[in-house]
Write a structure and sequence with these properties.
AhpD-like, 0% strand, mainly alpha, 9 helices
Length: 178
């Protein structure tokens, strides 16, 4: 159960306009994260703009994006993000069942992924776990990604580290239970 109450149209009719925008951009729902973030409406709007930018306005492939998001969620023990992304995005964005299972492991060491995928996963893992990336890891990912993509994946990882940590702090409820 979430540590703070959820905001909705009934409890805050003055937010109906912003809630409608959120619904339009989030699968027709006022998903739990926004129900919590709406305690600070400007933060909720800015959060949504940032998430939209890092997810939909980059040159990263949707597959690489989902690999990164799921890895961050796994490493930060954020069940909410894992469940939402496995149910709604991973398969649609090109991940196989085998790849999804491999991503759920604490350390990805199998041969399910290509060499480029493994370099990216190692980059995501290192950045998430240490908030830094040693030169060898950076050089390896640079073999597979251009400078723009490296900036974009770094910002995506940073954003989802924020995302998952806020979810964990507030103990957000799964979408289905709210």
């Amino acid at each position: 159960m979430a540590r703070i109450s959820y905001v909705n149209e009934i409890s805050h009719p003055e937010l109906q306009e912003v809630i409608q925008v959120i619904r339009e951009q989030r699968r027709g729902k006022l998903i739990p994260v926004y129900g919590l973030l709406l305690h600070s409406p400007e933060v909720a709007k800015t959060w949504m703009e940032l998430l939209n930018a890092v997810r939909w306005k980059t040159t990263l492939s949707s597959r690489i994006r989902e690999i990164a998001i799921i890895r961050v969620a796994v490493l930060n023990h954020c069940r909410y993000v894992i469940d939402v992304h496995l149910a709604n995005f991973a398969k649609q964005d090109g991940l196989t069942d085998e790849e999804c299972l491999a991503l759920l492991q604490t350390k990805v060491t199998n041969d399910v992924f290509s060499e480029s995928d493994l370099a990216i996963i190692h980059y995501v893992d290192t950045l998430t776990m240490t908030a830094n990336v040693e030169e060898a890891v950076f050089k390896k990912v640079k073999e597979w990604m251009n400078e723009r993509e490296i900036v974009e994946i770094s910002v995506l990882v940073g954003t989802y580290n924020m995302h998952t940590r806020v979810f964990n702090a507030l103990q957000i409820d799964p979408e289905d239970s709210k």
